[in-house]
Design brief:
By secondary structure, the chain is α+β, with helices and mostly antiparallel strands. Strands 4-1-6-7 form a 4-stranded antiparallel sheet, with no helix packed on it. Strands 3-2-5-8 form a 4-stranded antiparallel sheet, with no helix packed on it. A hairpin with a 2-residue loop joins strand 2 and strand 3. It starts with a helix and ends with a strand. 16% of the residues are buried.
Length: 182
């Protein structure tokens, strides 16, 4: 080991000490999914006077740098895994939700992209669309097969804090039709 390695170890320990509180937890008030690195104390020491003392101090600094590098690598891997799973979930999350509620069955008509789709469904029914499937104008129509109540809704960004209903309707009776547009 040379003096450069000792310096790198000292810098890594100092970074760890400044990024972590006394109890080894992040100093930020936000909760962090990353493992904490602990604390490090850097105290000035007299330079070693003999070769054996110098070798021992270099070995100690090298071990500290190795521990810091290992902890950093673990934290980076944990962050990458968390980011990757969050990104994958965001990519697969529906951007729009067609929803029809009631009892019995209905004929639903809706748009996916520029294509109109129609199908017989059992209620309640819903269909999530990704960004790539979004139509220019979201339209959902449902006709109840029989007597009862039926309602429809078009929900943007379902399952998020930003969710909102862009169109909704409800009706009761025999073979009634509801249409939602947004």
């Amino acid at each position: 080991m040379n003096g450069r390695s000792v310096l790198i170890g000292a810098i890594a320990a100092a970074l760890c000490a400044s990024a972590c509180g006394e109890a080894g937890s992040p100093t930020s008030s936000r909760d962090s999914p990353l493992p904490t690195l602990g604390t490090a104390t850097l105290a000035p020491t007299a330079p070693p006077t003999d070769a054996a003392s110098y070798a021992a101090s270099v070995a100690s600094a090298s071990a500290s740098a190795s521990v810091a590098a290992s902890a950093f690598a673990s934290a980076r891997a944990a962050f990458a895994a968390t980011s990757a799973s969050a990104s994958a979930a965001a990519l697969n999350a529906p951007a729009l939700l067609y929803q029809v509620t009631g009892v019995g069955s209905a004929t639903v008509t809706y748009f996916v992209g520029s294509s109109e789709e129609q199908q017989e469904v059992t209620l309640p029914w819903s269909l999530g669309l990704t960004d790539a499937q979004l139509p220019g104008t979201a339209v959902l129509s449902a006709q109840l097969q029989g007597t009862g109540s039926i309602s429809c809704a078009i929900i943007h960004a379902p399952g998020t804090a930003n969710a909102w209903t862009g169109g909704q309707a409800q009706s009761s009776g025999a073979y009634v039709v509801v249409t939602c547009t947004h």
